[in-house]
Write a structure and sequence with these properties.
- The structure is a single chain.
- This protein has one domain: UDP-N-acetylmuramoyl-L-alanine:D-glutamate ligase (3-Layer(aba) Sandwich).
- Helix content is about 35%, strand content about 25%.
- The chain is built from nine helices and 13 strands.
- The protein has a nine-stranded mixed sheet with strand order 5-4-1-8-9-10-11-12-13, with helices on both faces.
- The two termini are about 35 Å apart.
Length: about 300
Protein backbone atom coordinates (compact mmCIF):
# COMPACT_ATOMS: atom_id res chain seq x y z
CA UNK A 1 0.00 0.00 0.00
CA UNK A 2 1.62 3.24 -1.11
CA UNK A 3 2.03 6.33 1.04
CA UNK A 4 1.90 10.02 0.17
CA UNK A 5 3.38 12.81 2.26
CA UNK A 6 3.46 16.58 2.09
CA UNK A 7 6.38 18.34 3.77
CA UNK A 8 9.54 20.30 3.20
CA UNK A 9 12.50 19.53 0.96
CA UNK A 10 15.29 21.73 2.19
CA UNK A 11 18.93 22.71 2.09
CA UNK A 12 20.36 22.37 5.59
CA UNK A 13 23.51 23.94 6.97
CA UNK A 14 24.37 22.31 10.29
CA UNK A 15 26.87 23.51 12.89
CA UNK A 16 28.09 21.20 15.65
CA UNK A 17 31.21 21.01 17.80
CA UNK A 18 32.91 19.42 14.76
CA UNK A 19 32.21 22.47 12.58
CA UNK A 20 29.86 23.26 9.70
CA UNK A 21 28.30 20.83 7.24
CA UNK A 22 26.77 22.79 4.38
CA UNK A 23 24.32 22.20 1.53
CA UNK A 24 22.93 19.00 3.04
CA UNK A 25 19.69 17.56 1.68
CA UNK A 26 17.16 18.05 4.47
CA UNK A 27 13.55 18.83 5.17
CA UNK A 28 10.78 16.87 6.87
CA UNK A 29 9.63 15.10 3.69
CA UNK A 30 13.15 14.07 2.71
CA UNK A 31 13.92 12.46 6.07
CA UNK A 32 10.45 10.91 6.18
CA UNK A 33 10.84 9.34 2.74
CA UNK A 34 14.17 7.65 3.59
CA UNK A 35 12.69 5.52 6.36
CA UNK A 36 9.17 5.07 4.94
CA UNK A 37 10.69 3.96 1.63
CA UNK A 38 12.17 0.88 3.31
CA UNK A 39 8.63 -0.47 3.66
CA UNK A 40 6.49 0.94 0.87
CA UNK A 41 6.33 3.24 -2.16
CA UNK A 42 6.53 6.89 -1.14
CA UNK A 43 5.05 9.84 -3.03
CA UNK A 44 6.52 13.18 -1.97
CA UNK A 45 4.64 16.49 -2.24
CA UNK A 46 6.69 19.66 -1.86
CA UNK A 47 8.30 22.66 -3.57
CA UNK A 48 11.89 23.41 -4.54
CA UNK A 49 13.60 26.38 -6.15
CA UNK A 50 15.68 26.49 -9.29
CA UNK A 51 18.75 26.54 -7.05
CA UNK A 52 17.99 23.05 -5.74
CA UNK A 53 21.05 20.88 -6.47
CA UNK A 54 20.48 18.37 -9.24
CA UNK A 55 22.42 15.77 -7.25
CA UNK A 56 19.84 15.98 -4.45
CA UNK A 57 16.93 15.65 -6.87
CA UNK A 58 18.56 12.71 -8.62
CA UNK A 59 19.33 11.11 -5.27
CA UNK A 60 15.68 11.14 -4.19
CA UNK A 61 14.58 9.87 -7.57
CA UNK A 62 17.14 7.06 -7.55
CA UNK A 63 15.93 6.06 -4.09
CA UNK A 64 12.55 5.34 -5.67
CA UNK A 65 10.73 8.34 -4.24
CA UNK A 66 7.94 9.51 -6.55
CA UNK A 67 8.64 13.19 -7.24
CA UNK A 68 5.71 13.81 -9.60
CA UNK A 69 4.28 16.40 -7.22
CA UNK A 70 7.47 18.20 -6.28
CA UNK A 71 7.04 21.62 -7.88
CA UNK A 72 10.04 23.60 -9.09
CA UNK A 73 9.49 27.34 -9.22
CA UNK A 74 11.44 30.55 -9.29
CA UNK A 75 13.10 31.70 -6.11
CA UNK A 76 15.17 29.81 -3.59
CA UNK A 77 14.68 26.43 -2.00
CA UNK A 78 13.67 26.44 1.66
CA UNK A 79 16.89 26.63 3.68
CA UNK A 80 17.65 26.17 7.36
CA UNK A 81 20.81 26.92 9.33
CA UNK A 82 20.92 25.26 12.73
CA UNK A 83 23.37 24.66 15.54
CA UNK A 84 23.67 21.95 18.19
CA UNK A 85 25.62 22.63 21.36
CA UNK A 86 27.52 19.65 22.86
CA UNK A 87 25.73 20.06 26.19
CA UNK A 88 22.25 19.82 24.63
CA UNK A 89 21.99 17.77 21.46
CA UNK A 90 18.23 17.35 21.93
CA UNK A 91 17.49 20.95 20.93
CA UNK A 92 18.52 22.77 17.78
CA UNK A 93 19.27 26.48 17.78
CA UNK A 94 17.88 28.06 14.63
CA UNK A 95 20.44 30.49 13.21
CA UNK A 96 18.65 31.34 9.98
CA UNK A 97 15.54 30.31 8.07
CA UNK A 98 14.83 31.19 4.45
CA UNK A 99 11.34 30.15 3.39
CA UNK A 100 11.96 30.81 -0.30
CA UNK A 101 9.49 28.99 -2.53
CA UNK A 102 7.38 27.91 0.46
CA UNK A 103 5.95 31.42 0.64
CA UNK A 104 2.53 31.12 -0.97
CA UNK A 105 3.12 27.46 -1.84
CA UNK A 106 -0.03 25.58 -2.85
CA UNK A 107 0.41 21.82 -3.09
CA UNK A 108 -0.54 20.01 -6.27
CA UNK A 109 -0.89 16.28 -6.86
CA UNK A 110 -1.74 14.06 -9.81
CA UNK A 111 -5.22 12.62 -10.27
CA UNK A 112 -3.91 9.13 -9.54
CA UNK A 113 -2.29 10.24 -6.29
CA UNK A 114 -5.62 11.50 -4.98
CA UNK A 115 -6.61 7.87 -4.36
CA UNK A 116 -3.59 6.87 -2.28
CA UNK A 117 -4.99 5.46 1.00
CA UNK A 118 -2.18 6.36 3.43
CA UNK A 119 -1.47 10.04 3.99
CA UNK A 120 1.08 11.78 6.17
CA UNK A 121 1.23 15.48 6.91
CA UNK A 122 4.92 16.00 7.66
CA UNK A 123 6.09 19.19 9.31
CA UNK A 124 5.17 22.21 7.20
CA UNK A 125 2.66 25.05 7.70
CA UNK A 126 -0.78 23.78 8.78
CA UNK A 127 -2.37 25.81 5.99
CA UNK A 128 -0.34 23.82 3.46
CA UNK A 129 -1.15 20.56 5.26
CA UNK A 130 -4.88 21.33 5.11
CA UNK A 131 -4.76 22.38 1.46
CA UNK A 132 -3.02 19.10 0.63
CA UNK A 133 -5.45 17.01 2.66
CA UNK A 134 -8.38 18.56 0.79
CA UNK A 135 -6.87 17.27 -2.47
CA UNK A 136 -7.16 13.66 -1.30
CA UNK A 137 -10.36 11.84 -2.23
CA UNK A 138 -10.97 9.44 0.64
CA UNK A 139 -7.83 8.59 2.62
CA UNK A 140 -8.10 5.54 4.86
CA UNK A 141 -5.40 6.57 7.32
CA UNK A 142 -4.07 10.07 8.03
CA UNK A 143 -1.06 10.80 10.21
CA UNK A 144 0.34 14.21 11.04
CA UNK A 145 3.27 15.99 12.66
CA UNK A 146 3.81 19.62 13.59
CA UNK A 147 6.27 21.79 15.53
CA UNK A 148 6.32 24.44 18.23
CA UNK A 149 6.40 27.30 15.70
CA UNK A 150 3.02 26.35 14.22
CA UNK A 151 1.54 25.62 17.65
CA UNK A 152 2.58 29.09 18.82
CA UNK A 153 1.36 31.09 15.82
CA UNK A 154 -1.36 28.90 14.21
CA UNK A 155 -2.69 26.70 17.01
CA UNK A 156 -6.37 26.78 15.87
CA UNK A 157 -5.27 25.47 12.45
CA UNK A 158 -3.19 22.71 14.06
CA UNK A 159 -6.21 21.70 16.16
CA UNK A 160 -8.44 21.55 13.05
CA UNK A 161 -5.98 19.18 11.40
CA UNK A 162 -5.76 17.01 14.50
CA UNK A 163 -9.51 16.50 14.36
CA UNK A 164 -9.12 15.11 10.82
CA UNK A 165 -6.17 12.85 11.67
CA UNK A 166 -6.04 9.24 12.82
CA UNK A 167 -2.49 9.49 14.16
CA UNK A 168 -0.80 12.45 15.81
CA UNK A 169 2.95 12.48 16.39
CA UNK A 170 4.66 15.12 18.54
CA UNK A 171 7.60 15.46 20.86
CA UNK A 172 7.13 15.89 24.59
CA UNK A 173 7.54 19.69 24.53
CA UNK A 174 4.95 20.05 21.74
CA UNK A 175 2.48 17.77 23.54
CA UNK A 176 2.75 19.93 26.65
CA UNK A 177 2.51 23.15 24.61
CA UNK A 178 -0.72 22.08 22.90
CA UNK A 179 -2.45 20.74 26.00
CA UNK A 180 -1.02 22.80 28.84
CA UNK A 181 -0.38 19.57 30.73
CA UNK A 182 3.01 18.95 32.34
CA UNK A 183 2.44 15.22 32.87
CA UNK A 184 2.97 13.30 29.61
CA UNK A 185 0.23 10.74 30.31
CA UNK A 186 -2.28 13.52 30.89
CA UNK A 187 -0.96 15.32 27.81
CA UNK A 188 -1.41 12.19 25.67
CA UNK A 189 -4.97 11.76 26.93
CA UNK A 190 -5.71 15.43 26.21
CA UNK A 191 -4.34 15.07 22.67
CA UNK A 192 -6.59 12.05 22.15
CA UNK A 193 -9.63 14.06 23.24
CA UNK A 194 -8.90 16.62 20.53
CA UNK A 195 -9.46 14.01 17.83
CA UNK A 196 -6.70 11.61 16.75
CA UNK A 197 -7.37 8.01 17.81
CA UNK A 198 -3.65 7.22 18.07
CA UNK A 199 -1.16 9.46 19.88
CA UNK A 200 2.63 9.10 19.80
CA UNK A 201 4.79 11.31 22.00
CA UNK A 202 8.51 11.24 21.21
CA UNK A 203 10.78 11.73 24.21
CA UNK A 204 14.14 12.09 22.47
CA UNK A 205 16.85 10.08 24.20
CA UNK A 206 14.18 8.78 26.60
CA UNK A 207 12.20 6.93 23.93
CA UNK A 208 8.53 7.04 22.99
CA UNK A 209 5.08 6.95 24.59
CA UNK A 210 2.07 5.55 22.72
CA UNK A 211 -1.53 6.14 23.80
CA UNK A 212 -4.98 5.16 22.53
CA UNK A 213 -8.31 4.36 24.22
CA UNK A 214 -7.63 0.63 24.46
CA UNK A 215 -3.99 0.43 25.48
CA UNK A 216 -0.81 2.35 26.16
CA UNK A 217 2.89 1.49 26.05
CA UNK A 218 6.31 3.09 26.30
CA UNK A 219 9.76 2.13 25.02
CA UNK A 220 13.18 3.55 25.80
CA UNK A 221 15.41 4.86 23.01
CA UNK A 222 18.04 2.71 21.32
CA UNK A 223 21.33 3.50 23.09
CA UNK A 224 23.55 5.57 20.80
CA UNK A 225 26.95 6.42 22.23
CA UNK A 226 27.83 9.11 19.69
CA UNK A 227 25.14 11.50 18.49
CA UNK A 228 26.41 13.45 15.48
CA UNK A 229 23.37 15.31 14.13
CA UNK A 230 19.81 14.88 15.46
CA UNK A 231 18.25 16.86 12.58
CA UNK A 232 15.38 14.89 11.05
CA UNK A 233 15.30 12.19 13.73
CA UNK A 234 11.61 12.85 14.39
CA UNK A 235 10.78 12.79 10.69
CA UNK A 236 12.72 9.55 10.31
CA UNK A 237 10.74 8.12 13.21
CA UNK A 238 7.46 9.15 11.58
CA UNK A 239 8.50 7.63 8.26
CA UNK A 240 9.35 4.31 9.85
CA UNK A 241 6.08 4.20 11.76
CA UNK A 242 3.86 5.17 8.81
CA UNK A 243 5.80 3.05 6.33
CA UNK A 244 5.50 -0.09 8.45
CA UNK A 245 1.77 0.40 9.06
CA UNK A 246 1.21 0.96 5.33
CA UNK A 247 3.07 -2.26 4.56
CA UNK A 248 1.12 -4.30 7.12
CA UNK A 249 -2.26 -3.02 5.85
CA UNK A 250 -3.79 -3.38 9.31
CA UNK A 251 -3.62 -1.55 12.59
CA UNK A 252 -3.78 -3.34 15.92
CA UNK A 253 -1.74 -3.43 19.10
CA UNK A 254 0.84 -5.79 17.63
CA UNK A 255 1.47 -3.78 14.46
CA UNK A 256 1.54 -0.51 16.40
CA UNK A 257 4.14 -1.86 18.82
CA UNK A 258 6.21 -3.18 15.92
CA UNK A 259 5.86 0.10 14.07
CA UNK A 260 7.12 2.08 17.08
CA UNK A 261 10.05 -0.32 17.49
CA UNK A 262 11.06 0.05 13.85
CA UNK A 263 10.61 3.83 14.06
CA UNK A 264 12.83 4.01 17.15
CA UNK A 265 15.54 1.93 15.54
CA UNK A 266 15.50 3.97 12.33
CA UNK A 267 15.76 7.27 14.19
CA UNK A 268 18.81 5.89 16.03
CA UNK A 269 20.57 5.48 12.68
CA UNK A 270 19.63 9.02 11.69
CA UNK A 271 21.41 10.71 14.61
CA UNK A 272 24.69 8.92 13.88
CA UNK A 273 25.50 11.03 10.82
CA UNK A 274 24.90 14.42 9.22
CA UNK A 275 21.72 14.84 7.20
CA UNK A 276 20.76 11.62 5.41
CA UNK A 277 24.25 10.14 5.59
CA UNK A 278 23.24 7.17 7.71
CA UNK A 279 19.67 6.57 6.54
CA UNK A 280 20.21 6.96 2.78
CA UNK A 281 22.02 3.67 2.32
CA UNK A 282 20.23 1.58 4.92
CA UNK A 283 19.08 -1.92 4.06
CA UNK A 284 16.45 -3.90 5.92
CA UNK A 285 19.17 -6.40 6.84
CA UNK A 286 20.97 -3.69 8.84
CA UNK A 287 17.72 -2.43 10.31
CA UNK A 288 16.60 -5.90 11.40
CA UNK A 289 19.99 -6.61 12.96
CA UNK A 290 19.76 -3.48 15.09
CA UNK A 291 16.12 -4.21 15.84
CA UNK A 292 17.09 -7.58 17.35
CA UNK A 293 19.61 -5.82 19.59
CA UNK A 294 17.01 -3.24 20.56
CA UNK A 295 14.39 -5.86 21.45
CA UNK A 296 16.93 -7.53 23.74
CA UNK A 297 17.64 -4.13 25.27
CA UNK A 298 13.99 -3.37 26.13
CA UNK A 299 12.83 -6.92 26.91
CA UNK A 300 13.70 -8.45 30.31
Amino acid sequence: MSLISVGTVAIDNIKTAQGWKRNLLGGSASHFSMSAGLFTEVHLVSAIGKDFPKKHYDFLKNKGVDLSSVIESGGKTFAWDGEYKPENLNSAITLKTELGVLVGYKPQITEKQRNIPNVFLANIGPDVQMAFLKLMKNPKFVGMDTMNLWINIMKPDVIKLMKKSDLFISNDAEAKLITGETNLIKAAKALRKIGPKLVVVKKGEHGVLFYCDDFMFSFGAFPVDKVVDPTGAGDTFAGGLMGYLAKMKKINERTLRQACVYATVLSSFNVEGYGLAKTAGLSMVEVDQRMKSYVKFITP
